[in-house]
Design brief:
The chain is mostly helical. Helices cover 67% and strands 10% of the residues. It is globular and about 70 Å long. The two termini are 41 Å apart.
Length: 372
């Protein structure tokens, strides 16, 4: 709870600083206009290089991209290009590397990268609306998911082999580090929420936990993609959990849903629609919770770094003075985000187990009455 309060306080503080900085800049422009000072005439290239747009930088960091962009030195970006796969009914299939676009500055094979979207263009460089473009490219989110999935499979297969070979011997190496985590998920998530049926769901719960955890950790690497901060990614995870919940339901669940016992008849007209809507709000809560928390952390870290450049626009001294403060807060939030990466993986897995347990909750009452 304290971590989330700290996050909220930091967001409010730096939002206020952004507002003050923006107001100060606009005030300077107004003074120049009123005093009749003639601004310097600069070339388009100079203006483009000197203009710093925090919103664009923030969205570029959060949104998906066709390359892994790490830095830019003297106008030369340092990035890892990814494959571009395009299909157009008018032009057919085109496969090439994203480096051919030169970060949106060049046109290649009649296509152009504009604000992260590939569009078809004519010979003079204008958008060609008559050409339909289907983008099947391997973006950095997709590539990072493939890497995370590959790492997950390799690690767990190696651990499983050690168990098969060593039998009941004491675990060693990475197996020793992984076993307490698996035991914790089994006891605190599986058994606590699913009871005797926990073994049936443990493969899914463990897979979800470790997959989200690896994606969260990878997202903290500078230049990488914030995969779990992508609503499409969390949407798919939420839909899979939704299917698992529905497959776990029974006649008791649906009976209590459409005919709640012990409830007055007229109240059922209100309660039944609310309960039915609750079936869909559960996976929606999973989707939004993971997405919002992972995006918030990355936004705070990015804003803290950008504050150095924003203050530098006011004066070089202000930028240099604020740099140590910005870096100190960035490191602090970064370590919090490492903790949040584990917490969010656990919360998603735990809530999934809770919702699945609620789906066959009626069976527990039936078994209890039978034993009684």
């Amino acid at each position: 709870m304290r971590l989330y309060r700290s996050k909220s306080l930091l967001v409010a503080t730096f939002s206020l600083i952004f507002l003050i900085s923006t107001t100060y800049v606009f005030a300077q422009e107004t003074v120049e206009k009123n005093t009749g000072n003639t601004p310097k005439v600069e070339s388009a290239e100079t203006t483009k290089e000197e203009d710093f747009k925090p919103g664009d930088v923030l969205m570029e960091h959060i949104l998906d991209n066709h390359e892994f962009h790490f830095a830019e030195i003297n106008g030369h970006p340092i990035a890892i290009p990814l494959p571009i796969i395009i299909y157009s009914p008018q032009r057919g299939v085109s496969i090439f590397m994203s480096s051919n676009f030169e970060h949106g500055k060049a046109i290649y094979q009649g296509y152009k990268l504009e604000e992260g979207t590939i569009i078809a263009v004519t010979d003079n460089g204008t958008a060609d609306a008559s050409v339909k473009v289907y983008d099947f490219s391997i973006t950095r989110n997709v590539m990072q998911m493939i890497i995370a999935l590959t790492l997950l499979v390799v690690l767990l297969i190696n651990v499983a082999k050690k168990y098969r070979i060593n039998g009941n011997k004491a675990p060693s190496g990475f197996q020793n580090a992984l076993e307490p985590v698996i035991t914790f998920i089994r006891d605190e998530v599986g058994i606590s929420n699913l009871g005797a049926k926990h073994e049936k769901y443990m493969p899914y719960l463990l897979t979800v936990f470790f997959f989200i955890l690896i994606c969260n950790i990878f997202g903290l690497i500078p230049g990488s993609a914030n995969t779990t901060g992508n609503i499409a990614f969390t949407l798919v995870l939420g839909l899979i959990s939704f299917v698992a919940i529905l497959l776990s339901t029974n006649k008791h669940f649906w009976g209590h849903l459409f005919n709640p016992p012990g409830v007055p008849f007229l109240v059922k007209f209100i309660l039944v629609p609310v309960e039915f809507l609750g079936i869909f709000t559960k996976p929606f809560a999973l989707i939004i919770r993971l997405f919002a928390n992972m995006v918030a952390g990355h936004m705070i870290i990015t804003c803290l770094i950008m504050m150095i450049f924003i203050f530098s626009k006011l004066s070089i001294g202000a930028g240099i003075s604020f740099a140590p403060v910005s870096l100190a807060f960035t490191i602090f939030i970064y370590f919090i985000e490492i903790l949040v990466a584990f917490i969010q993986a656990f919360i998603f897995t735990n809530l999934t187990a809770v919702f699945i347990g609620q789906a066959f909750e009626g069976e527990h009452h039936e078994e209890a009455n039978a034993h009684h």
